[in-house]
């Protein structure tokens, strides 16, 4: 592919003065380079992909790449201009986009002008304009390096400090208390409010900062200014809800505790899950719940879990948006769920938990035949997806899937995250 050539070109030629620093970790190669007086660390994961021999991400590679991307301020994503987009490129592009990192798309092997002309095809990866270079001949490598250092954060302003805001939607039936909650969240003294236009016509996103953490509430048009009753039909129409879910990292579903959870709520939950987004459930109007006792909350949650077992791993809070009861816990919960959605679980940790789960409770035989699950590996974040290898994916029992989900939720602290399991013949 040419990753190593580029790596060497960045590190090894006149352009960059190399000093070997952190050296070599087991799977990632770190080196410090200086170019035009700027010092930066290059992390190379290139050695792990057996070039051209696979077209899906090998299990042992994903972990390293996840980690390398997360650590980096800038990702150079290299594709082969002569080959065009491969399935693997697609997978990488998705992963990088999810991790929301600054990225330059590099179409390598572009020494021949005709190949450069073809590079427009890479636009479809959704990573912007491809930079055509040739690591081999050095074509356009210096201008790439110039661009790289211009994009790297100056000392002391790493992009880790410039965290992107957590985006969430407040959903629920009319009168559940969504506007009241929004106003309360925005009305806090510490909060700085600004309205920014969303993507849908007349949708408004609100931004606020609490204790240095930035939040965006998506599509608040109908919530800020109390809409007239007839408008609500439109405002909470399915399309609008879907759009709001899609543009958020997670959703808060508000339920009027005095009325209980409705079919419409379940439909919203379904949409949130399908979109692969985080979920927090709020039981609102706790202040006016009739016949309230210490056990009311447990009873209500238990009934909800009986109907939907996955609620066991969904944060549920009883609050009063009007009185402010436990409202301060909501933002904390949002931060936790957001982190859970982005969690990268170490390869060895997954292997360990998976092996233990299979040993403790092996998969029952299917039509007299053994169902063997051989390996588990995380392939995605946001949503977290764990692939499980088995020769017989169709024979995997539904209740066994739930057992594994439960095990993973508990072991990896994924509450609120839409963890998915895939069963596949090959990882
Ligand atoms: P939305 O349609 O979901 O935005 O609901 P609103 O925020 O407009 O609330 C509908 C009604 O419920 C209003 O009269 C609110 O004052 C009331 N309300 C909202 N939250 C609470 C709460 O926690 N307790 C009580 N008692 N009333 C609430």
Automatic annotation (TrEMBL):
Gene3D superfamilies per UniProt: 3.30.300.20, P-loop containing nucleotide triphosphate hydrolases
One GO MF term: ribosome binding
Biological processes annotated in GO: ribosome biogenesis
Chain sites annotated for binding GTP 1: 44-48, 108-111
InterPro entries, per database record: G_ENGA, GTP-bd, GTPase_Der, KH_dom-like, KH_dom-like_a/b, P-loop_NTPase, Small_GTP-bd
Record's keyword annotation contains GTP-binding: yes
Cross-referenced PROSITE patterns: G_ENGA
Residues holding GTP 2: 172-179, 219-223, 284-287
Entry keywords, A to Z: GTP-binding, Nucleotide-binding, Repeat, Ribosome biogenesis
Domain EngA-type G: 166-342
Lineage: superkingdom: Bacteria
A Pfam family: KH_dom-like
Function: GTPase that plays an essential role in the late steps of ribosome biogenesis.
Subunit structure: Associates with the 50S ribosomal subunit.
Alphabetized PANTHER family for the sequence: GTPASE DER
Classification via HAMAP family: GTPase_Der
Family of the protein in this entry: Belongs to the TRAFAC class TrmE-Era-EngA-EngB-Septin-like GTPase superfamily. EngA (Der) GTPase family.
Name of the molecule in the record: GTPase Der
Organism name: Hallerella succinigenes
Lineage of the organism: Bacteria, Pseudomonadati, Fibrobacterota, Fibrobacteria, Fibrobacterales
């Amino acid at each position: 592919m040419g990753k190593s050539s580029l790596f060497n070109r960045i590190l090894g030629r006149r352009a960059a003065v190399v000093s070997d620093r952190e050296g070599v970790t087991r799977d990632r190669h770190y080196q410090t380079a200086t170019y035009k007086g700027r010092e930066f660390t290059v992390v190379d994961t290139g050695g792990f992909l057996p070039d051209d021999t696979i077209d899906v991400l090998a299990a042992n590679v994903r972990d390293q790449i996840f980690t390398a991307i997360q650590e980096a301020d800038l990702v150079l994503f290299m594709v082969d201009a002569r080959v065009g987009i491969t399935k693997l490129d697609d997978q990488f592009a998705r992963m990088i986009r999810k991790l929301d990192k600054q990225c330059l798309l590099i179409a390598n092997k572009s020494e021949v002008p005709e190949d450069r002309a073809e590079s427009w095809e890479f636009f479809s990866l959704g990573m912007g304009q491809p930079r055509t270079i040739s690591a081999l001949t050095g074509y356009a490598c210096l201008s790439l390096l110039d661009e790289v250092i211009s994009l790297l954060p100056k000392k002391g302003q790493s992009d880790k400090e410039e965290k992107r805001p957590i985006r969430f939607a407040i959903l629920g039936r009319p009168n559940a208390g969504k506007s009241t909650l929004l106003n309360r969240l925005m009305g806090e003294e510490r909060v700085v409010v600004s309205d920014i236009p969303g993507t849908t016509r007349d949708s408004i996103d609100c931004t606020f900062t609490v204790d240095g953490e930035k939040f965006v509430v998506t599509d608040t048009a109908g919530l800020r200014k109390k809409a007239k009753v007839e408008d609500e039909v439109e405002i909470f129409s399915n399309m609008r809800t879907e759009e709001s879910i899609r543009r958020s990292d997670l959703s808060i579903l508000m339920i009027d505790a005095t009325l209980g959870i409705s079919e419409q709520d379940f439909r919203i939950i379904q949409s949130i899950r399908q979109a692969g987004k985080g979920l927090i459930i709020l039981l609102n109007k706790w202040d006016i719940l009739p016949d309230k006792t210490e056990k009311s909350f447990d009873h209500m949650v238990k009934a909800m879990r009986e109907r939907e077992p996955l609620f066991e791993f969904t944060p549920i809070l009883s609050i009063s948006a009007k009185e402010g009861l436990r409202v301060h816990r909501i933002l904390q919960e949002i931060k936790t769920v957001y982190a859970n959605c982005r969690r990268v679980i170490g390869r060895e940790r997954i292997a360990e938990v998976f092996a233990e789960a299979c040993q403790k409770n092996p998969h029952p035989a299917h039509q007299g035949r053994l169902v063997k699950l051989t390996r588990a590996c995380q392939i995605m974040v946001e949503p977290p997806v764990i692939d499980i290898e088995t020769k017989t994916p169709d024979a995997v029992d539904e209740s066994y899937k739930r057992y594994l989900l439960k095990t993973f939720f508990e072991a990896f602290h994924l509450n609120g995250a839409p963890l998915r399991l895939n069963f596949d013949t090959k990882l």
